[in-house]
């Protein structure tokens, strides 16, 4: 292994099979360890400054398709008819008096007049202005003032902060509460910020305790945590920079925290574990770091690529809610990998053997008690699974499929105020409107009519709309120049199936002018269409790139297919639980959320991309160790046992730690964030404890040595471009330890070799 540490002299040939590029990299990152850590400290401090205030620049929307018909109509109506698109509602309660009481009416008109004079507010209307039944509660004790706050998400939030204290509360005979889309999103942004701080305070100490339990050494346990903090702070700075050029969702911060801690800990776990393993064989620290980077370091880089690919697939979709998670996810994955591959080796060089200092587990061990052999339980479990491979393969597959069955009844909807706690002011207002006001104000469909038309043509079109099934009434038109708009009130829920069908029926009505339909149901229809149209492309992108990457790692045709199929299968429990718990409302009491009876349309896409990437993360670590052992011995079953023995405990520990982080995120009071955190925690645990521990060894036992087969052209491709954790180094090491040298050509022939990079 000395070739890792001593570069060849100028003109000197590099020994055959040596990995000079990895050796040069190891020498580069360990040449000035103190300088590397000092530079990292300075950059982290700059990232703290650059990322400060990032929450205030993030948006709380982004679920709609910006190129859809409904989006165009919404913007046009905002511009031409602002009163048609109110986003701020003042719920005016009159106590025991009627809203028509003269004193109540006078106070309400005064409030509406003051609101109309506020900077950044337009389109103010109220029940007391036009006596619309839709703006008056059925019991006559509540009515609405509606208005529109102009600008983007940040500008609307600032306007709301400025005016809300002057309207919220008691005014003479009336009590005012604030609701509407602006209030819901602004309150959601505030709650997420508070919940994120609480999640970090929960996750960090628990994670540190778990790391100490895994490593024993308190010094070693602090290293992954430090890498995670660097990744999180760096990603916040990246997101802050991105807000200058594009919209970024506030929800992406949750993913930044979860992946920043989770992946950084995963990568640091494997690198520190391998480094300590090399030290235990008698290697000096520099040699141990070189070997670690050439093996576990290479796998970390490969794993980061697979996770980044899954997250990058969300860039296919037009909604900035999904694209934001791609921005945040890719940034945090790359920063976590970079920190693990640059800063961690420098820290390990400085620590040397002191990485094992402060072994707290010694306090729990009896003096003189022998240390148990590493991974023996996992080796025995792998042997048991492979002896009963058909039973375990069939049983776990059936279990996962059954757990996923509730997803067949999924209903897609939109995110609304019910994402917030039931005590949140905007949630209370919207719930009052849903339950007490006729026709669900704000839940109708708006139709933008563009082009010159006569009163007769407008009247004829209105009659056609009124004749459609599922229509309660049609209001309008309100005409302004060559534009007009109608409001159609559907039967039932604003985003129910009848309302969604009505969107298509309205769009099919012939009119002598151009029409565009918007409203909550229309936005949902367009969002579902955009996701359905692009989902095959995203899935194909993930599948093709994952197949290629896993082939480059293993040189097998079958293993990449197994990896993709088993990864997808591991997510069934997550999707089934999402529907059973969050759509159907089971456990809504213990988990403290309000079920809306549907799942927000973009969330399953997000959860699939994140969970699939994390599953591939663990899959790469397991497969790389199996491949290393198979390259060394040529014994397929022994390689599977060895891979689980070496990585089973570590993958489980990493999964538990990541699940803790995700559960901390899942304590959020916002339902979508709760769903994301708890759902991915379940997916990660199912993948590590069921798929990696049971299904993978069972399937690999059933496929036998055919697992490693590849046709001759692909073998030659892998020989030239493939990578492996052990590769030729493993063969050469084995020869030095007494393996007959004449076995090397046979092994190379069996497996086609691999290229160390």
UniProtKB/TrEMBL annotation:
Any Pfam family the entry gives: MMPL
GO cellular component terms listed in the entry, alphabetical order: plasma membrane
InterPro entries noted in UniProt: MMPL_dom, Mycobact_MmpL, SSD
Membrane topology: Multi-pass membrane protein
UniProt keyword Cell membrane, yes or no: yes
Primary site of residence: membrane
Subcellular location per the Swiss-Prot or TrEMBL entry: Cell membrane
Region annotation (Disordered) ranges: 727-757
Keywords per UniProt: Cell membrane, Membrane, Transmembrane, Transmembrane helix
Domain SSD: 225-350
Superkingdom, taxonomy of origin: Bacteria
SUPFAM superfamilies cross-referenced by the UniProt entry: Multidrug efflux transporter AcrB transmembrane domain
PROSITE patterns named in the record: SSD
PANTHER family assigned to the protein according to its UniProt record, in alphabetical order: MEMBRANE PROTEIN MJ1562-RELATED, MEMBRANE PROTEIN SCO6666-RELATED
Protein family membership: Belongs to the resistance-nodulation-cell division (RND) (TC 2.A.6) family. MmpL subfamily.
Name this polypeptide is given: Transporter
């Amino acid at each position: 292994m000395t070739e890792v540490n001593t570069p060849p002299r100028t003109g000197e040939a590099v020994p055959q099979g040596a990995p000079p590029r990895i050796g040069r990299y190891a020498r580069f990152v360990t040449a000035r360890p103190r300088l590397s850590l000092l530079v990292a400290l300075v950059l982290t401090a700059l990232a703290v400054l650059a990322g400060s205030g990032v929450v205030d620049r993030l948006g709380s929307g982004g679920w709609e398709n910006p190129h859809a018909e409904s989006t165009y109509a919404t913007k046009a109506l905002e511009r031409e008819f602002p009163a048609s698109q109110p986003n701020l509602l003042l719920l005016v309660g009159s106590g025991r008096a009627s809203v028509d009481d003269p004193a109540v009416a006078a106070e309400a008109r005064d409030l509406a007049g003051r609101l109309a004079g506020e900077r950044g507010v337009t389109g103010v209307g109220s029940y007391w202005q036009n006596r619309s039944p839709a703006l008056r509660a059925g019991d006559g004790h509540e009515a609405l003032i509606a208005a529109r706050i102009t600008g983007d998400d940040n500008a609307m939030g600032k306007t709301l902060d400025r005016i809300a204290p002057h309207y919220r509360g008691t005014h003479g005979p009336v009590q005012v509460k604030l609701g509407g889309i602006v209030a819901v999103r602004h309150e959601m942004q505030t709650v997420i910020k508070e919940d994120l701080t609480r999640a970090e305070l929960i996750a960090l100490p628990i994670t540190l305790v778990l790391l100490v339990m895994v490593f024993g050494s308190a010094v070693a346990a602090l290293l992954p945590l430090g890498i995670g903090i660097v990744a999180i702070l760096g990603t916040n700075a990246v997101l802050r920079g991105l807000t200058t050029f594009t919209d970024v969702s506030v929800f992406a911060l949750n993913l930044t925290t979860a992946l920043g801690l989770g992946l950084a800990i995963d990568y640091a776990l494997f690198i520190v574990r391998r480094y300590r393993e090399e030290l235990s064989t008698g290697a000096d620290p520099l040699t141990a770091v070189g070997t670690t980077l050439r093996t576990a370091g290479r796998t970390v880089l490969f794993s980061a690529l697979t996770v980044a690919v899954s997250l990058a697939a969300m860039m296919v979709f037009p909604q900035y809610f999904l694209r934001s998670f791609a921005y945040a996810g890719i940034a945090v994955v790359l920063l976590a990998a970079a920190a693990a591959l640059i800063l961690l080796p420098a820290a390990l060089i400085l620590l040397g053997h002191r990485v094992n200092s402060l072994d707290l587990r010694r306090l729990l061990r009896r003096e003189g008690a022998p240390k148990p052999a590493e991974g023996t339980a996992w080796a025995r479990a792998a042997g048991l699974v492979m002896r009963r491979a058909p039973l375990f393969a069939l049983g776990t597959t059936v279990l996962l499929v059954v757990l996923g069955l509730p997803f067949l009844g999924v209903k897609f909807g939109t995110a609304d105020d019910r994402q917030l706690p039931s005590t949140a002011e905007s949630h209370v207002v919207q719930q009052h409107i849903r339950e007490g006001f006729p026709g669900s104000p704000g839940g109708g469909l708006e139709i933008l009519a563009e082009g010159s038309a006569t009163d007769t043509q407008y009247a004829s079109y209105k009659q056609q709309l009124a004749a459609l099934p599922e229509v309660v009434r049609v209001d309008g038109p309100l005409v302004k120049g060559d534009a007009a708009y109608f409001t159609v009130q559907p039967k039932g829920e604003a985003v129910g199936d009848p309302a969604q069908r009505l969107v298509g029926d309205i769009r099919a009505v012939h009119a002598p002018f151009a029409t565009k339909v918007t409203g909550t149901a229309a936005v949902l229809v367009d969002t579902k269409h955009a996701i359905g149209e692009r989902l095959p492309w995203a899935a194909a992108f993930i599948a093709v790139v994952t197949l290629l990457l896993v082939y480059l790692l293993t040189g097998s045709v079958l293993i990449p297919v197994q990896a993709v199929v088993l990864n997808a299968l591991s997510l069934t429990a997550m999707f089934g639980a999402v529907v059973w718990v969050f759509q159907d409302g089971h456990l809504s009491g213990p988990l403290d959320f309000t079920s809306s009876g549907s799942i927000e349309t973009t969330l399953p896409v997000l959860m699939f991309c994140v969970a699939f990437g994390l599953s591939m993360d663990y899959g790469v670590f397991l497969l790389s160790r199996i491949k290393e052992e198979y390259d060394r011995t040529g014994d397929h079953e022994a390689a599977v046992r060895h891979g689980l023995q070496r990585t089973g405990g570590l993958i489980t520990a990493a999964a538990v730690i990541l699940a803790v982080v995700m559960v901390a995120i899942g304590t959020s009071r916002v339902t979508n964030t709760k769903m994301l955190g708890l759902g991915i925690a379940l997916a990660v645990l199912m993948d590590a404890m069921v798929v990696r521990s049971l299904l993978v060894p069972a399937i690999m036992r059933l496929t036998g040595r055919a697992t490693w087969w590849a046709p001759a052209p692909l073998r030659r491709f892998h020989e030239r471009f493939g990578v492996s954790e052990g590769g030729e180094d493993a063969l050469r090491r084995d020869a030095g330890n007494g393996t007959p040298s004449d076995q090397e050509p046979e092994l190379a022939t069996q497996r086609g070799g691999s290229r160390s990079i």
